[in-house]
Design goal:
Layout (H helix, E strand, L loop, with lengths): L3 H26 L1 E6 L9 H8 L2 H4 L2 E6 L4 H10 L4 E5 H6 L7 E6 L6 E7 L14 E4 L5 H11 L8 E4 L5 H6 L5 E5 L3 H7 L4 E6 L10 E6 H6 L1 H20 L1 H11 L5 H15 L2 H6 L6 H14 L9 H4 L14
Parallel strand pairs: 1-2, 1-3, 6-7, 6-8
Antiparallel strand pairs: 3-10, 4-10, 5-8, 5-9
Length: 339
């Protein structure tokens, strides 16, 4: 007859074995997902790392890899070619790509407002009103569509767009040239303000935020291909849900979000990361988001975004329509609301 001690030992051993088997089975069932950013990892990307670091993706059975990119075009291309499964896709860039990117579908919008900003210095040009864009020297890349967006924005605000003096400047050189007063203004995302403030020590950077003056279009969003959506609808839904939880948590806890992100991207300054996350609220949290949750999409705003780009930018190949690029039905059934 086995002793009580032996029976208890055998039972405990069975429990441990079962637990190990279940854990191994769960790990084996985790789905790998490659997610590509719209640029190198910056403070503005903290919400994705929060979803990773807080285990939100793991809770959904996903093993997510976050991949930096060289820019929005690279992100779109990587999703189209299958290098990445899902991407942080800029809708204006997607529309500007025309039929070449027609296979990419948007399932959730993160930047409810466009992040475009005209930075100038005070004292200096100190541009705070669209009327001051007339005859302004504007540092941007003539190979991108941003100068054309600027010109359309000027016309929206009753300013002659032909008076804008565009100086062709590589992206990495814009802030140094602004700091050196070699150009009066530059285009940068609004989240760049903390870094610009640290680069310019003898003046105060001023941001003319286009979203405050009538440019009501979407920007960066979660997107993937039609094929991936068709084959992996549950994976996409789980990824969206976990990601939006990351946005919710990061925007409610910027300093903690910064500490989480620097565990993965050690070169970043946690103070700058936290400040960028604070600024993200301006473009990610709107009255509609407060009511319907992060990621929400309005067909009217999507149409306005697509129509704006098709009207003001030269599109290669066939122009895309809002109904082509948006796929509803992938947002969480229970909205992820701002805290």
């Amino acid at each position: 007859m086995p002793t009580v001690t032996k029976l208890i030992g055998a039972a405990l051993g069975a429990v441990v074995a079962l637990s190990t088997a279940l854990t191994s089975s769960a790990m084996a069932q985790e789905r790998d997902v490659k997610f590509i950013l719209d640029f190198i990892s910056l403070g503005r990307h903290a919400p994705w790392y929060v979803a990773l670091g807080k285990g939100f993706y793991k809770e959904e059975g996903l093993n997510v890899s976050i991949i930096p990119s060289k820019g929005t075009a690279d992100a779109i291309r990587s999703v189209v070619t299958g290098i990445a499964d899902i991407g942080f896709i800029d809708i204006p860039s997607l529309v500007a790509s025309g039929s070449a990117a027609g296979n990419v579908k948007i399932v959730a919008v993160n930047y409810q407002k466009p992040p475009y900003c005209v930075f100038s210095l005070d004292p200096g040009a100190n541009v705070t009103d669209p009327k001051q864009l007339a005859n302004l020297e504007f540092g941007s890349s003539t190979s991108s569509f941003l100068p054309r967006i600027m010109q359309a924005f000027m016309e929206m605000n009753g300013v002659d767009s032909k008076t804008l003096k565009v100086v062709n400047i590589d992206g990495a050189a814009r802030v140094p040239m602004l700091a050196a007063r070699k150009v009066a203004s530059v285009d940068q995302f609004i989240m760049s303000e903390p870094a610009i403030r640290r680069a310019v020590t003898d003046a105060k950077p001023k941001c003319l935020f286009l979203g405050d003056f009538g440019l009501d279009i979407y920007s960066n969003s979660i997107g993937t291909t039609e094929e991936y959506l068709t084959k992996n609808p549950d994976v996409v839904k789980k990824f969206v849900r976990a990601s939006l939880r990351g946005w919710q948590y990061a925007l409610a806890n910027p300093k903690e979000a910064a500490q989480i992100q620097i565990q993965y991207v050690k070169a970043l300054n946690p103070d700058i990361v936290a400040e960028e996350v604070e600024i993200l609220k301006r473009i990610a949290v709107t009255p509609e988001v407060e009511k319907k949750g992060f990621g929400t999409v309005s067909l009217d705003t999507m149409k306005r975004t697509v129509d704006f780009m098709n009207k003001n930018v030269d599109i290669p190949g066939e122009k895309l329509a809002a109904e082509q690029i948006w796929r509803p039905g992938f947002l969480p059934e229970t909205p992820v609301l701002p805290k």
